[in-house]
Specification:
Elements lengths: L6 H12 L20 H15 L5 H4 L5 H14 L2
Length: about 80
């Protein structure tokens, strides 16, 4: 069973994925405007996070994602739901 994902670990993974400095990663960052992703980029990030954390985000929830905070909240909700 996966444990709750903490922001520091999540920020490390986002920094690794995007190439940004960890100190520049903020919860309110918009995945489209601040990270320059499109829907395919968000899907790719989702696959990376699935492999990293072994937690799936339902496709229906992906449409609601705008910020990094949205992603970590959704991941942690899925962890709680499967606990």
């Amino acid at each position: 069973m996966a444990e709750k994902i903490e922001w520091e670990d999540f920020a490390d993974k986002i920094a690794d994925y995007t190439g940004l400095e960890k100190g520049d990663i903020r919860p309110e960052m918009n995945v489209y405007n601040d990270l320059g992703m499109d829907s395919l980029g968000l899907f790719s990030l989702g696959m990376y996070l699935l492999k990293t954390y072994q937690v799936e985000i339902p496709l229906s929830a992906v449409a609601t994602i705008e910020t990094l905070d949205n992603i970590i909240i959704l991941l942690n909700q899925q962890i709680e739901a499967t606990a």
